[in-house]
Amino acid sequence: MCTIEPKRTCAWLFPRRCWCCFSFGGMTGPALDSALMTLVGPSGLFLFNAIACTLLALTARRALGLSLKATGARVPS
Question: Is residue 49 a part of any domain in this protein?
């Protein structure tokens, strides 16, 4: 039976996951953008970019484990 070291598994698996996420975004992004432009009009392109950037920032924040309490930021009331 062939065994694979955990270090080699992570090194092999991580880039493939990145490519899969990139490919999924490349397939779904233009379709979603086109649908949004159909609903909203030409400004849908900018709306789509704003939504995509916001989701990316929230995902990065979650991945880094940042929160308002940890950073000391205050929420305006």
Answer: yes
